[in-house]
């Protein structure tokens, strides 16, 4: 008995810690599978011992909210749902009743209030009794109606969610890996609870209604299904829902399971609620659960396999993530062979070692995870050197979580932005190498420096089998790489990512140095400072870069990979020498404004983005426009010329 009580206390502490980390710190210290298993163990002990601790997660719903947002108590407590993974239990629940089945979306539950047809208040679920007021943020949800036909007081509940596509796009834009969101739910929670709703608006948060709490004076014929249909007619996007009976529930569950793969929005199961409102309400509630509804969680398909290796995957902030590589298994209709382990703490919790027999599953039928380690040989061989650059690693403890970092500031994995600039359109213009793809290639060791990009064909078979690649995309990539070999000296200089050296500056400098590589190396600050538009800061940056032997070697290595046609500089053609232009509006005689810019720069001029006292001409076909650029040009006495006038300048008229 004493051992069981001690175990119960351990489980309460462990589960509360995991829940707190997940909901308040965006840190995942155990998988959903492990959490559910421990939760069920705790529930069983409580039932066996007849004892429930005050802090038990089986009777406490969520944690107190932590933010500067105003807090408000809900008129009715928001209880969680009793859950099962057994369809038979749903049949027992249904008996002779009809029910509505719908997605259990994995986002943030919101309570909305409408007065006189206008959204007046939005409050998060919080801890079920007290939530945070996020009305301003709700007003910028992507699909939420601010005004509805119904003019009485309406209170409803729904889920704020962010789709997988938006989640991946937003995460890709976050350079700091530690700041990346673990899943769409974490991203949604952070987005909905922003103090600045401009940030919320950029996150494409969607709202799906799932429960009508009250609607003043409306008649729903005692039907939950009718309530949801009515909400749809008011303009709300309603969670997908079907009517079911005990005879059809099994088929409906199978249908929803089949839809998961194509679902953009995260779901962690299904919800079943009696259609008969009066009957459901007459059943009342337990201390934690309403008796008129049930949550169904997918019965995870678990396969046993062997852990072949731990792949350590560095990222752009130096964080090195462990990834489990195992013998391929079929799960939920697809072949999987790898799963993120997230950090060293989870590895140690699983006592994960190469050669162990492990059980794997797909969380929510989508994300591969390790459920259990059957042999637990223990964590070994945490790398002392970064697998990308060979730099020293260190173990860091943050929020009770052990993580591994690369300490080398020059690590290639930390230089993703530099590689992205190198392949960008104004530089080498290599299509097919997004930041995400570059990161994968760098982590796998295919790219260590810029020159390696020209030899990706060494890894043909590996690239073709990578996710998102195939024969066609590989061929397109290699063709683009080969096409990029013919370039210009200014583009090559710009591709190096020298601070303050844009493409326009690179063109001006290369032209002034007669496109002579030796002169690039030997140029002095004084020499460059004499070039119109360069200045002391740019001159020093340029000279300092090529004074570094390491940088010269990088450049020399690149020169062997590319073909730079000889550019003849006609001094007499530099008719725009020391002249500054600004181009605005649409163009007619040229393909686009960039073409005009190229022409001006080829004639010795410079193109800037804003009108200043140093501007010589503003090119705008709408000469009489009252735009801000035209107004400023007039105030400064700067000529505003059309394309026709510009062409006359070119001809010397």
TrEMBL record:
Swiss-Prot/TrEMBL catalytic activity: NAD(+) + (deoxyribonucleotide)n-3'-hydroxyl + 5'-phospho-(deoxyribonucleotide)m = (deoxyribonucleotide)n+m + AMP + beta-nicotinamide D-nucleotide
Where in the numbering of this chain does the BRCT domain appear?
Answer: 571-653
Gene Ontology MF terms: DNA ligase (NAD+) activity; metal ion binding
Q: Which residues form a coiled coil?
A: 1-28
Family annotation (Pfam families): BRCT, DNA_ligase_aden, HHH_2, OB_DNA_ligase
Which of this chain's residues are annotated to bind NAD(+)?
A: 80-81, 125, 159, 297
List the protein's name.
DNA ligase
Query: What organism is listed for this UniProt entry?
Result: Faecalicatena orotica
The gene it comes from is ligA
């Amino acid at each position: 008995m004493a051992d069981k009580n001690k175990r119960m206390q351990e489980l309460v502490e462990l589960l509360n810690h995991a829940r707190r980390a997940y909901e308040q710190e965006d840190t995942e210290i155990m998988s959903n599978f492990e959490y559910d298993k421990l939760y069920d163990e705790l529930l069983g002990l409580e039932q066996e011992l007849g004892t429930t601790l005050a802090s038990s997660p089986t009777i406490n719903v969520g944690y107190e909210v932590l933010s500067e947002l105003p807090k408000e108590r809900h008129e009715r407590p928001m209880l969680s749902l009793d859950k099962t993974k057994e369809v038979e239990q749903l049949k027992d629940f249904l008996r002779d009743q009809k029910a509505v089945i719908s997605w259990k979306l994995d986002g943030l539950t919101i309570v909305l209030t409408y007065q006189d047809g206008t959204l007046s208040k939005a409050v998060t679920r919080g801890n079920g009794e007290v939530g945070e007021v996020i009305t301003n943020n709700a007003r910028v949800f992507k699909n939420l109606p601010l005004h509805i036909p119904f003019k009485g007081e309406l209170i409803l509940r729904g889920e704020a969610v962010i789709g997988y596509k938006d989640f991946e796009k937003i995460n890709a834009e976050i350079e700091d890996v530690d700041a990346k969101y673990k899943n769409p739910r974490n991203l949604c929670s952070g987005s909905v609870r922003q103090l600045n709703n401009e940030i919320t608006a950029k996150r494409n948060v969607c709202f799906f209604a799932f429960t009508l709490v009250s609607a003043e004076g409306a008649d729903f014929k005692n039907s939950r299904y009718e309530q949801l249909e009515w909400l749809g007619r008011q303009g709300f996007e309603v969670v997908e829902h079907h009517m079911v009976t005990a005879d059809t529930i099994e088929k409906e569950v199978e249908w929803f399971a089949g839809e998961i793969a194509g679902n953009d929005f995260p779901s962690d199961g299904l919800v079943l609620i009696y259609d008969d409102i009066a009957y459901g309400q007459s059943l009342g509630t337990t201390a934690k659960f309403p008796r008129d509804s049930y949550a169904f969680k997918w019965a995870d398909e678990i396969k046993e396999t062997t852990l072949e290796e731990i792949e350590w995957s560095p990222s752009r902030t130096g964080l090195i993530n462990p990834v489990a590589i195992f013998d391929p298994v079929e799960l939920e209709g697809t072949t999987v062979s790898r799963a993120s382990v997230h950090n060293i703490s989870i590895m140690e919790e699983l006592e994960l070692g190469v050669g162990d027999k492990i059980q794997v599953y797909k969380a929510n039928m989508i994300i591969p995870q390790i459920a259990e380690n059957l042999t637990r040989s223990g964590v070994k061989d945490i790398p002392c050197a970064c697998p990308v650059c060979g730099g020293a690693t260190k173990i860091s403890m943050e929020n009770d979580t052990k993580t591994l970092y690369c300490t080398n500031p020059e690590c290639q994995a930390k230089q993703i932005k530099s590689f992205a600039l190198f392949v960008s359109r104004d530089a080498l213009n290599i299509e097919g190498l997004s930041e995400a793809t570059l990161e994968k290639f760098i982590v796998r060791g295919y790219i260590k420096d810029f020159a390696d990009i020209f030899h990706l064909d060494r890894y043909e078979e590996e690239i073709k089998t990578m996710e998102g690649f195939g024969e066609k995309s590989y061929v397109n990539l290699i063709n683009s790489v080969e096409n990029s070999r013919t370039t210009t000296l200014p583009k090559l200089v710009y591709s190096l990512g020298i601070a303050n050296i844009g493409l326009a500056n690179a063109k001006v400098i290369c032209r002034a140095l007669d496109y002579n590589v030796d002169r690039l190396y030997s140029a002095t600050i004084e020499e460059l400072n004499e070039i119109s538009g360069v200045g002391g800061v740019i001159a020093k940056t340029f000279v300092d870069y090529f004074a570094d032997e390491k940088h010269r070697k990088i450049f020399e290595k690149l020169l062997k990979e590319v073909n730079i046609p000889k550019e003849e500089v006609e001094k007499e053609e530099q008719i725009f020498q020391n002249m500054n232009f600004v181009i605005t509006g649409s163009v007619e005689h040229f393909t686009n404004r960039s073409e005009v810019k190229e022409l001006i720069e080829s004639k010795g001029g410079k193109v800037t983005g804003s009108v200043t006292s140093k501007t010589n001409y503003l090119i705008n076909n709408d000469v009489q426009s009252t735009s801000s650029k035209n107004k400023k040009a007039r105030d400064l006495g700067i000529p505003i010329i059309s394309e026709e006038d510009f062409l006359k300048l070119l001809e010397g008229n």
